[in-house]
Amino acid sequence: MSGDLVVIGNGMVGQRFVDALRARDPQGRWRVTVLGEERRAAYDRVRLSAFFDGVSESDLNLHTPHDGVRLRLGEPATAIDRDRRVVTTAVGEYHYDALVLATGSYAFVPPVPGAELPGVFVYRTLDDLTAIRAYADGRRAGAVIGGGLLGLEAANALRLLGLSTDVVEFAPRLMPVQVDQAGGAMLRRYVEELGVRTHLGVATTAIRPGPDGAVAALELSDGSAVDAELVVVAAGIRPRDELARTAGLPLGPRGGVLVDETCRSADERIWAVGECAAVDGTCHGLVAPGYATAEVVADRLVGGAATFPGADTATKLKLLGVDVASFGDAHGATPGCLDVTFTDPATRVYAKLVLSDDARTLLGGVLVGDASAYPTLRASVGGPLPAAPLALLAPDGGGADAGALPATAQVCSCNAVTRGDVDAAIAGGCADVAALKACTRAGTSCGSCVPMLKQLLDAAGVAQSSALCEHFDVSRRELFEIVQVRGIRTFSRLAAEHGRGRGCDICKPVVASILASLGTGHVLDGEQASLQDTNDHFLANLQRDGSYSVVPRIPGGEITPEKLIVIGEVARDFQLYTKITGGQRIDLFGARVEQLPQIWRRLVDAGFESGHAYGKALRTVKSCVGETWCRYGVQDSVGLAVALELRYRGLRAPHKIKSAVSGCARECAEARSKDFGIIATETGWNLYVGGNGGFRPRHADLFATDLSTETLITLIDRFLIYYIRTADRLQRTAGWIEAMDGGLDHLRAVIVDDSLGLCADLDAAMARHVSSYSDEWRDVLDDPDRLRRYTSFVNAPDVPDPSITFALERGQPVPVRGHTSPARPEDADDQRRQPVALGLPEVRR
Amino acid sequence: MNHSSTLDWTAVCPLDRLEPDRGVAALVDGVQVALFRTADGLFAIDNRDPVSGACVLSRGIVGSRVGVPTVASPLHKQVYDLRTGHCLDLPGVAVARHDARCRDGLVEVRLRREV
């Protein structure tokens, strides 16, 4: 199957469908057009409320661009002509061979008098939230109609906006769909403690205006009234099926495009996914079943035979700081079923398990206050109990271990990964959580199953050895502690007392890095020199032909014309290939080892210093031009980037560290792809941590918002030192945070709240680094002993390495590849590269 | 025996010019030699990394693997037995080894060539 594919809707499920199709159709047999009503590309509606916690629009973005996919935003479809197979918009017509409806839902507003008044909102899109935030300014009383999941999120939002908050729910309890009466009572205690008043078992009979015509109060069915200058209606959702209805497609009994288990409508060319699809007559309002429909249709469009697996309506969320989870037959609707309940008023935990009549099979359950057992319990629904009921309900979920799950149990419901899939990946060689995530996608969406992935690795007997290499049985982190606590300053003593043998290319650079991080003098002093990898040994980057590249530091990417000219002159005089790097500096290639001191003499004299491009160290702090010039900038991003780069220059770490500073939310410096990124706000700086590009790209996570420059620097200081002390060898900050027990929350506890009492020590360590910094290259040039290393041949220092030869390409020298790589087949490029005599440089002083 | 020592000893440098557990490159009869000083003594092998073709082995990290003195290629970290020149990571790959000794404080190298 192939041709024109039109997707109407770019919400979470519409986007997931396009991602899934592109993954299955790499040749691009389907030419895809996506029509989106909103002017924003797909964003994470599940986390919508995080917008009020300082998470930005770009943090919520879910859109991934794909080749062969045309995205038309702000262009809603207005009609479907099934005879001509054309979708119409205000702009034009789009032909389709297949059409996928992903139109989602709209917020249902009950027909109450006054529902159209100014100040009454729904809670569905980012535009809704932006409007609520603007309207809340200067008002004090808010109310929410609806005490379900969305209603409680809206209540929390109003609370965060500083409004008093009343919640009106028609059912006799909060979250009536997910939670039973006792769970609802526990939830109500939590909610009211936060100052949210609840009105249960009553209906809103009218919304009343004040003298200014805007909303002022709610009238309730028990005769009472509630002050409300801002009202959010969260009374449920209805499928967007008007296009399908007008086009004559059959609908489900409660609306929605009627589709079969393959998600195909009565018209064989039209499919429906997500909340607008009535699969066998039922619409599903959660994202997991929506994703399942997206996968089904993507599979069908490439000739597969997938069918809708049935809806997993399990839910786990943190509402107003309370863990709430519900899964399976939460209300005990199965005939003859048994309940096991646990209520602890002291810790305010409520839990209920619903069991089959023989008490052997888990059917469902409700957890309020502590949902740590949720992943295992949810995965066990329909199967035998993984442990005794009371052990499972114990507050820390101690009895719930994923090792007891059957192979068919779904471990990750977001991505439909079963225990069998995880076990197969482990058998195929995945030895840690990161590998499992990359291989199966489990744990890559909400992340709640990550503890189970660890348990499954344990259950499979995968010993996650932390031994560094054959010479040391301990991890880098433990080695760091040993070196620090025992004050050991030489590799030989460390190996003699805590390891064995003579070391290797794994442990020696690790020890070198630890010693450097502890500030033990120049990296080429004494025995330390022998530990360094070749890059650190020569303070330059080894290239494929045995020559080196040179990268002077250009803090923040800011450079004067005079310094640019010096770099140009040095490159010209030494006939170096020059290239601009991604970190806003200039890389000079093709330097022979004996040329490095001559090149650096020139650079140091002109005021340059080492850029540490050769080290596992801070590389660059990239910046956009910021408010100084940019008409959008709100802070001085260049000034901050320069200050940060100068503060952290020379800091050795388990892996390279990159950073960037953007002067406004447009994020031109790409700070979120860095280990620590800073984005300016109107009032300060937002700090992001744990991003990287590379093999497994990852966006950094928002760590703290609206910081003063002083607080920002303190947090980065602690973040970096804590990383340097506790990360594994070659572990970047992303993997370090992912592997950390408790993740980002733990990191916040340690470096913001000082939960381990470490902060003073971390601050002191960074202060020592800053005060003891000196330029490594200047120190080498001043020392004849260190300079001695930079010779081509110990017995023929005047003879350059004859194996290094260059050809010209696009006017610059490049290595002659055939010459140095005899094993490689000559490629067409090399045919054009004829060696040229470039001669030895004439060094001008 | 398909190896034999065919050339004379060549004095290369004073012993104290070699850092312990580190290498230097030397040019002996037109051949690039990587020369190492370790606790197990002096070793000499070809400087040319047989995997990449670049002359860089003298810049590798010296160490041990199960008691065997080794050097790791600085380019892609394949490890070589300093005593025999055999690559311990890639079967069938090896570098030529040469003789090295210290006489009167001077390091001397004698090339070995296949005959």
TrEMBL record, chain A:
Domain Nitrite/sulphite reductase 4Fe-4S: 615-751
InterPro entries attached to this UniProt entry: BFD-like_2Fe2S-bd_dom (IPR007419), BFD-like_2Fe2S-bd_dom_sf (IPR041854), FAD/NAD-bd_sf (IPR036188), FAD/NAD-binding_dom (IPR023753), FAD/NAD-linked_Rdtase_dimer_sf (IPR016156), NasD-like (IPR052034), NiRdtase/SiRdtase_haem-b_fer (IPR005117), Nit/Sulf_reduc_fer-like_dom_sf (IPR036136)
Keywords assigned by UniProt, alphabetized: 2Fe-2S, 4Fe-4S, FAD, Flavoprotein, Heme, Iron, Iron-sulfur, Metal-binding, Nitrate assimilation, Oxidoreductase, Thioether bond
Names of required cofactors: siroheme; [4Fe-4S] cluster; FAD; [2Fe-2S] cluster
Tagged with keyword Metal-binding: yes
Gene Ontology molecular-function annotations: nitrite reductase (NADH) activity
Nitrite/Sulfite reductase ferredoxin-like domain segment(s): 543-604
EC number: 1.8.7.1
CDD domains according to UniProt: NirB_Fer2_BFD-like_2
Pathway participation: Nitrogen metabolism; nitrate reduction (assimilation)
Domain NADH-rubredoxin oxidoreductase C-terminal residue range list: 314-379
Record-annotated BFD-like [2Fe-2S]-binding domain positions: 411-458
Record-annotated FAD/NAD(P)-binding domain positions: 4-277
Reaction it catalyzes: hydrogen sulfide + 6 oxidized [2Fe-2S]-[ferredoxin] + 3 H2O = sulfite + 6 reduced [2Fe-2S]-[ferredoxin] + 7 H(+)
Region described as Disordered: 804-845
Bias-annotated ranges (Basic and acidic residues): 824-833
Keyword Membrane: no
EC class of the enzyme, as a word: oxidoreductase
Function in brief: Catalyzes the reduction of sulfite to sulfide, a step in the biosynthesis of sulfur-containing amino acids and cofactors.
Family: Belongs to the nitrite and sulfite reductase 4Fe-4S domain family.
Name this protein carries in UniProt: assimilatory sulfite reductase (ferredoxin)
Organism: Micromonospora parastrephiae
UniProtKB/TrEMBL annotation, chain B:
Coiled coil: none
Location of the Rieske domain: 10-109
Gene3D superfamilies with a match to the protein in the record: Rieske [2Fe-2S] iron-sulphur domain (2.102.10.10)
Keyword set, alphabetical order: 2Fe-2S, Iron, Iron-sulfur, Metal-binding, Nitrate assimilation, Oxidoreductase
Record SUPFAM superfamilies: ISP domain
Position of the signal peptide: none
Domain of life where this protein originates: Bacteria
Protein name in UniProt: Nitrite reductase small subunit NirD
Species, as recorded: Micromonospora parastrephiae
